[in-house]
Amino acid sequence: MSKQTILVTGGLGFIGSHTVVELLNANFDVVVVDNLDNSRAQVLEGIRKTCGKDFTYYNCDTRNEQAMHDIFTQHPQTKGVIHFAAHKAVGESVDNPLKYYDNNIYGLVALLKQMKANSIKSMLFSSSCTVYGQPEQLPISETTPLKPAESPYGNTKKVGEDIVSDATKTGQFRSISLRYFNPVGAHPDGFIGELPIGVPQNLVPFVTQTAAGLRDKLSVFGNNYPTADGTAIRDYIHVVDLAKVHVKAITRLLNNEGPDYDVFNVGTGRGYSVLEVIQAFERVSGKSLPYTFADRRAGDVIEVYADASKAERELNWKAEKDIDDMMRDAWTFQQNILDKSHVLNTDNNA
Ligand code: UD1
Predict the structure, then answer these.
(1) Residue 186 pLDDT greater than 90, yes or no
(2) How far is the CA of 305 from the centre of ligand 1 (A)?
(3) Cβ of residue 227 lying under 6 Å from some atom of ligand 1
(4) Which range has the worst mean pLDDT, 24-28, 130-134, 202-206, 229-233?
(5) Most buried of the four, 2, 224, 258, 332, by CB within 10 Å?
(6) Whose alpha carbon is nearest atom 27 of ligand 1?
């Protein structure tokens, strides 16, 4: 049987690059579309080194419908799309909501229009556990009621899911929204990982950059939460586990299995506090991490962790890596980054 092609938008980003590796390992042909807005061309080499396989890359924005049409025409064997390309900095989205709606919403609509024009049915959409806000009950299952978004970024994920779901109801698409909990870590080979441009907004890259001496100290946002040690709890998931669920989900769509539209939580089902993350990092790196307590960060929820049993039941996927793996691999990658110029970039589009 000839190989099937998957087009991956944002394929040079953190989750995208790891997913491209898993798709190539699973013997798909891959076409990456990425405008390098928050990623770097060196990731191309990192992906190739990690899996020893090649793929096609276009520097293109999904909002450019003519260019996307040309790419789909060049690759008529494309059977599905995995859509990662989006902005993801919560604070920036509050300051510049139109940038977020333009890229995350218009970019999605333009992509779906071109998929339709080129008769490509299968669509995997990157969503987030942010759509649940702070739920009344834990763990969070896919039937947990959604909360109004706390930020324009969060709203683009909620509205993005609605757009994909409504487009699917026409019969022209089959699609899945994956609601990621907190993706961290890096490929254990150390060639690809998280490369935030400017000051990291998320916990783990800030931890590894602090340990590497690029930041003075970590601020732990809030130590008076109603949790065992007072710090907030999240369900951290290793990015390689997360990448693997994309292969399962796109395969299900391509095989015409399951409903036309579906939603899955992607987490481990276990929550860790910020202090537990720091302890795990210190344990595996052998380094002591300088940190101080700071005020709570606006918009942060207290505690979230997934009920990820639907993905296990229906996609035959389960997270395999633990918090020590996540910290060890993130640290290995941090130590491998020789070009530190991204750290100095002042554009906080992390
Ligand atoms: C955030 C977004 C989420 C988004 C995800 C993208 C919010 C409310 N949520 O998740 O919608 O999908 O990023 O990756 O922003 N922390 C510190 N010090 C730091 C950084 C973080 O203590 O320097 C704490 C935070 O307060 C939080 C935990 O670490 O308790 C995790 O934070 P982070 O990695 O930013 O992820 P989320 O906020 O959970």
Answers:
(1) yes
(2) 13
(3) no
(4) 130-134
(5) 332
(6) 232
Is residue 153 annotated as part of the catalytic site, yes or no? yes
| 130 Cβ below 6 A of ligand 1 | yes
CB of 221 sitting under 6 A from ligand 1? yes
* pTM flag (> 0.90): yes
CB 197 within 8 A of CB 244: no
Minimum CA distance residue for ligand 1 atom 38: 300
> Residue 198, CB half-sphere, CA atoms under 13 Å: how many?
10
What gap in Å lies between CA 6 and CA 26, rounded to an integer? Answer: 11
**How far is Cα 162 from Cα 145, in angstroms, rounded to an integer?**
14
Boundaries of every domain in the chain: 5-183+238-266, 203-234+269-339
198 lines ligand 1 (CB under 6 A): no
Interval 68-77: pLDDT, tens:
999 999 999 9
Which residue is catalytic, options 153, 180, 261, 272? 153
> Is 203 a pocket residue for ligand 1 (Cβ < 6 Å)?
yes
- Amino acid letter for position 80: G
Collapsing DSSP states into helix, strand and coil, what is residue 197? Answer: coil
Class of the domain covering 203-234+269-339: alpha beta
Residue 73 CA neighbour count, 13 Å, CB half: 7
Q: Which fold has domain 5-183+238-266?
A: Rossmann fold (3.40.50)
